[in-house]
Amino acid sequence: MKTYPNPKSPSSSNDAAKKKTGSEPASFFDVVYKIVRKIPKGRVTTYGAIAEAADIKLTPRMVGWAMNGAGRVKPVVPAHRVVNRNGELSGRHFFATPTLMQELLEQEGVTVKNDKITDFKTVFWDPGARKAPSAVKKKD
After folding, report:
1. Cβ proximity of 16 and 55 under 8 Å
2. Is the peptide bond before 7 cis (omega within 30 degrees of 0)?
3. What is the pLDDT, as a whole number, of residue 9?
4. Which candidate, 103, 28, 25, places its Cα nearest to that of 70?
5. Model pLDDT for residues 6-23, shown as the tens digit of each residue
6. When comparing pLDDT for 41 and 3, which is higher?
7. CA-to-CA distance for 13 and 8, rounded, in angstroms?
């Protein structure tokens, strides 16, 4: 049977989850929300990409569970920018209205048709992608 970390347990987070205050570790909710807040406007990412980038043994389903509570978090978490691996608006039912997620994405320039992002590969943002190191000039 697969086991999942307890979000309130200090052992559920490894060194990738930065400390909030003192010796209290960040919960996986905090780690997920921090990643989601970095998604640029007009871009989307997936539950799985967030799970991988979190580096604390999360599953996409656990990210979805965290996103379910994102509407009550301050500062705001742009939950509308998180979709499933196929680019479908699978979290749309957790918004105030069934069309709000699509409306928010469209306001940012993301095209949605039949509850699916039409140019998913173009607007996908990988939270785990590292910036390429800048070229170092050699001294003569």
Report:
1. yes
2. no
3. 42
4. 28
5. 544 444 444 444 444 455
6. 41
7. 9
If you search the block for the tokens 């070229």, which residue do you land on?
Answer: 135
What 3 state SS string does the chain have?
CCCCCCCCCHHHCCCCCCEEECCEECCHHHHHHHHHHCCCCCCEEEHHHHHHHHCCCCCHHHHHHHHHCHHHCCCCCCHHHEECCCCECCCHHHCCCCCHHHHHHHHCCCCEECCEECCHHHHECCCCCCCCCCCCCCCC
Query: Is 46 in contact with 82 (CB distance < 8 Å)?
Result: yes
What is the Cα–Cα distance from 138 to 140, expressed in whole angstroms? 6
Strands 82-83 vs 45-46: parallel, antiparallel or unpaired: parallel
